[in-house]
Amino acid sequence: MRGLIVAIDGPAGSGKSSVSRLVAARLRLPHLDTGGFYRAATLVALRAGIDPADLDGIVRRLADVEISSRDGLTVVDDVVVEGDIRGHEVTAAVSEVSAHPEVRRLLVEKQRQWVADRGGSAVVEGRDIGTVVFPDAPLKVFLTADELERARRRAVQRGEDPATHLEAIRRRDSMDGSRPVSPMTPADDAWVLDTTDMGIGDVVETIVEMARVLQR
């Protein structure tokens, strides 16, 4: 399916990572997790001892590193950092780092180039794909779910108590939805899917069928 970009957005715990990977496999398209880019930028800043609020320091540091994705894994300077970017320290700081306009501009350029280098077709997941990164994507999907269900999913993934994730999800939603640049919101022409009571297979099948209809 050449020339097809499937933009999948949604808040934490909505299922977008699992769904987007499976949709990409079904459609035989490259998959890009743009959240990994922001987590990698946060990791780079923290490792350099840069405060997440220090925009100038972060931007200067990012100028010296290469952030990309390979085989579904986030890499920094050709080193896989997938495990490191999922740690608690990065998770706690990533919203602040990703809210910086210049950081977003730099990383959006890298994300667009990544897709262009792969023929212009991909399944791309994030929080502003349909509104900012690829506003002309032919298929835009915004996944959502009840916050209690999203907390439960995160807890299951990590073998923890859902109560420990509920407040974090609420805080992340507030920061992502209120940032002045690229706030998390469905594109006007996005399909909004509430996955609270849907199995992952049903969500994937729904999106795959949408994509196939576009290609007929």
Q: Which class do the helix and strand fractions yield? A: alpha/beta
Count up the helices: 9
The count of strands amounts to: 8
Write out the strand line-up for the largest beta sheet, numbering strands in chain order: 2-6-1-7-8
Global shape: globular
> What's the alpha carbon Rg, rounded to whole Å?
16 Å
Average the pLDDT over all residues and give the rounded result: 91
Uncertain runs are none
Beta content comes to 15-25%
Spatial separation of the terminal alpha carbons: 10 Å
N-to-C SSE series?
EHEHHEEEHHEHEHHEH
Biggest sheet character: 5 strands, parallel
Which range best describes the helical content: under 10%, 10-25%, 25-40%, 40-55%, 55-70% or over 70%?
40-55%
Summarize it.
The chain is of the alpha/beta class. The protein has helices at residues 16-27, 34-47, 55-62, 88-98, 101-116, 129-133, 147-158, 163-178, 200-215, and strands spanning 5-9, 31-33, 67-70, 73-76, 79-80, 122-126, 139-144, 191-194.
